[in-house]
Amino acid sequence: xxxxxxxxxxxxxxxxxxxxxxxxxxxxxxxxxxxxxxxxxxxxxxxxxxxxxxxxxxxxxxxxxxxxxxx
Length: 71
Prior knowledge:
The two termini are 13 Å apart. By secondary structure, the chain is mainly alpha-helical. The longest helix has 11 residues, at 45-55. The protein has a single domain, classed as lambda repressor-like DNA-binding domains (434 Repressor (Amino-terminal Domain), Orthogonal Bundle), CATH 1.10.260. The chain has helices at residues 5-14, 19-26, 30-38, 45-55, 59-62. The chain has five helices and no strands.
């Protein structure tokens, strides 16, 4: 699943978290957070849930799904 990396980055900033802090809270690597924010990797649904939980956000408010054409 492709996610809106810019929105993830913005919400992370608004939460006052560094990539490393979000990664630790979500039990992911900082490299994974970086790749998601840059849009260079797809996000597995379990990873999405971990990030939502770490940010205290619902899936719908956190991620705008993007189709294969980037829309």
